[in-house]
Amino acid sequence: METKLHSFLNSNLLNKYLVGEASYDETKEVEFFISNYPEAAEAYEKLQNNLDLIAKAGAVDVPNHVLGNILNALDETNETKVIQLVQNKKTPWYSIAATAAAVLFAVSSFFLYQKNKGLMDENNVVVEEIFDLRSDIEKNNAKLDELSAELNKLNHPDARKYVINGNERYKSLKTVAYINPVEKTSMIDVITLPQLPEDQHYQIWAELQDRMVNLGILDESNRKLKQIPYMEDALALSIKIGKDGEETNENNTEVAEISLKENE
Fold first, then answer.
1. Does the pTM exceed 0.70?
2. For the segment 220-230, what is each residue's pLDDT rounded down to a tens digit?
3. Strand partners, 227
4. CA 164 – CA 179 distance, rounded (Å)
5. What residue ranges define each of the domains in the chain, with the CATH number in brackets?
């Protein structure tokens, strides 16, 4: 239905309805959208107000000399002139008045047409701005829903929080892991990570009974909750330094570790 509303607002139906040129079916369609959609009613009201302003601004005062010419023409109609027994009649005064009125009407109509065209362009811009705003609102709502879902996971009664601090070599390192064994979800929040050489990066590992599993790379530039794989029966989490293009689980690269069994 939003597509139909958008097409309606981009059409010329509101303008035709406002100036009385809409057909019976078009009138019913315009009145339906105005009655059922606030955006259409707002656009119609704005169009009507602008048209009133244009009508007032476009009102043209009749020049003083036009009235004088009409009066002179009326005086001249009382005079007759005979040449070779043939009477030349002056143009009737009402023809002159009608011509003057027609000229003024044509000028006013052209001026109104130009203003109306500008108003339609402005109306189309307003419609686009309304839909852009609604699109931004929908995107923001989606982000809020995503954030709300993440917060619900963190605040879940079964979720467990693990603060992972750096060792003696990396005391400023700090991250927080959230693990929910019921929903089988794991997330990690990067707080601070000391700067590393360009060819190195931080990796987070899960220690199982018989092996170590790489859960991904940690990057301080992405300061938001990061989803990491959930590992059933993990004994501990550790952060190690690895080089680009290779994985490592050597002990001398470890910079932080926390047991997952101590809090149970």
1. no
2. 776 677 888 98
3. 187
4. 13
5. 2-152 (no CATH), 160-259 (2.60.40)
